Amino acid sequence: MRNFQLSLRSALMTSAALIMVAGLPMQASDLDNRIESSVKNSYNFKTYLKDDNIKVDSTNGVVTLTGTVSHEYHRSLAEETVVGLPGVRSVNNKLSVVGDLPAEHSDGWITMKVKGALAFRKNVSAKDTEVHTEKGVVTLTGSADNEAQKQLTGEYAKDVEGVTEVRNELAVPKPEKARRTFGEKVDDISITAQIKTALVLHKSTHPVDTKVTTKNGVVTLKGEAHNVAERDLVTKLAEDINGVKRVKNRMTVK
């Protein structure tokens, strides 16, 4: 009788263990499916990265990105977007850039950096701005909605590593066009990823250790700035990102 009870108890424990183990892959699979779906439906992947060839594969929260992108900063934007999603444990970024990357600090490299610095802005127009670099001198051509937008575009370009001078030849139509509006909602994860990517592209904020979180379009910045001017610049750059409603800068000054 005792042997029978022990055998029955062992069988029940074994069955319970098998049920628990069998449930793990399903739970993990559900999590991975949610991660992959969230990535594909994020604002960044549906706008800035929509023409890139990116495959997203999540296994137990470890996300692998494979495929190709058109710009180096797209690699960073894709990774930062994925990193911020709930359930993501780590990101293995295997994305490659189409074509040969320009040598570091070359004119082509500077042009690429300037285009990246303008990419996510709501108060400048990257698509209406042509960038040409020769011996570190950047020339901006195209059009701006107004004089303020023209000057801001020049400021952003000047704050890119390697730029020695900016020749701002953007044309301002008269009468001035109405400022562009963006009706599409930008999700919080995409906003955070854009800000992190933008801060890296500017030489004045690249070395700053800034922690960025976003909730309902309200951005909170934490970390340390070297001085008040640097802290204010981080605020300014964050405020000009698509989808940002307000910025709370809680950074401390060393």
Spans where pLDDT lies below 50 across 5 or more residues? 2-6, 15-24
**CATH class identity of the largest domain:** Alpha Beta
Question: What is the name of the CATH topology of the largest domain?
Answer: Histidine-containing Protein, Chain: A
- State the CATH architecture of the largest domain: 2-Layer Sandwich
What form results from the Cα inertia axes?
Answer: globular
Structural class: alpha/beta
Please summarize the sheet with the most strands. Answer: 4 strands, mixed
Helical segment count: 7
**SS elements, strand count:** 11
User: How many distinct folded domains?
Assistant: 3
Amount of helix: 40-55%
> H/E order of the elements?
HHEEHEEHEEHEHEEHEE
Rg over alpha carbons: 24 Å
Termini distance? Answer: 75 Å
Task: Tell me the β content.
Answer: 15-25%
Mean pLDDT: 87
Descriptive report:
This protein has 254 residues and is an alpha/beta fold. The protein has three domains: 66 residues, Histidine-containing Protein, Chain: A; 62 residues, 2-Layer Sandwich (Histidine-containing Protein, Chain: A), CATH 3.30.1340; 66 residues, Histidine-containing Protein, Chain: A (2-Layer Sandwich). It contains seven helices and eleven strands. Strands 1, 2, 3 and 4 form a four-stranded mixed β-sheet that branches. Strands 8, 9, 10 and 11 form a four-stranded mixed β-sheet that branches. Helix 3 packs across helix 6 and helix 4 packs across helix 5. The longest helix has 40 residues. The termini are far apart. The N terminus is likely disordered.
